[in-house]
Fold Threonine/serine exporter family protein.
Amino acid sequence: MADNTPGKPATADDNQMLALIAEVGEALNRSSYPVPLTKQVIQDITSAYEDDISTEVFATYIIALDRANGKVAVANTGSMYRFDQVAQTESLIHKLRSAKVPIGQTLKDLRAVATAPPPVNAVARVVGYMLMALGFALCFRMSVPATIAAVLISIPVAAILLWSTGKGTLATLMPFLLTFLAALAIAIWAIHGGTSDPVRLAVIPVVTLIPGAALTTALMELTAGEMIAGATRLISALVVLLSMAFGLALAIDIVGMPSTHLQDLTETQAPSWVLWIAAPIFAIGNILNLCTPKRDWFWTIALAFGAFWLNELLQNVIQPAFAGGVALGITLLVAWAINAHVKGNPSVLVMYLPTWWLLVPGSMGFVAVTGAITEDHQLGSLGTNAALSLLSMAICMMVASVLAPYVTRPLPWRRNAADDDGGVRPT
């Protein structure tokens, strides 16, 4: 255990603990954790190891400060983790919060997670991306030709994304570049082939690039008083959103697509029964593309299916903008309960994030911004609903975070049982 007596020289343990805290913060940032929860986890770890390291957590970097020894560690956030990396990170951090593992070994394990190769080959990940596009198209009940187009265009998009991962500046251009290329192909197809709903069709192959999760996380951080982290994340997400909308609008303008072709809803819809398979297909696509661990497969599919239909039912009672928020809040509580009480402790984020993407509030905002750029009022009017959806989701997720300790408490018959492994649980 680190000795933090003022005036003493820093020991190897002190330096390792400082580095560990910085890298834990980075790993949680790369796992899409909001800043308030990251701070809570770090506080739990320092308390467990009886250390006194203060931190400043931001959206893109972490500062850890050992005041007793005058040492500082800074970690910059890299690219987002795959789901296998998220699950491994949560497992390590769960052990750290109970002070069950040596600091030095955990530091090595965290670094190994960051550089771990994908456990799924590239072909399977591309197939997964195709299934995600198919699931989205079925959610919108798009026509058969439009669905086929979305799946076909997702193939080069997926290949380019896998190739550009970790390539720094080039990777940051991908949202704009891929949106422009996908929209250009769809716009040309729509002009010459009469494809319906070209805007939605252009969105589907790149929908996972839309920073909807970042927008919601930013709103959560701002509401929780994390102004710097929330504001920087919000600005970053809006820049990505605007660049993608600009790419879509630019493609439409180059092709010269008339406003009569810009529609928000498909003219020829698929039969309603496709909605029953849309969520499972999308979830399976996530499992393949993002390398979900086997222990999370069933729950990922179950939560996506349940949340999708809960959202559909709630829309009969309340406005759609609020229904998505309530559905996601309930789903998040269920995910925490599963993590706490199911053997193997499936990862909360791994189970939950596909459900979040499935409800696509981010794509609504994307389409709305595109409508404003192209002066199409039918599309632009979606902006109000998109903003309400994001705000509703942020608030409901915060409420779920407050209620989470009540659903994660040990059950009476398990109160004396030891935890084997698990994710990051709220306290």
Observations:
- Residues 227-255 form the longest helix (29 residues).
- Confidence is low (pLDDT under 50) at residues 1-12, 415-422.
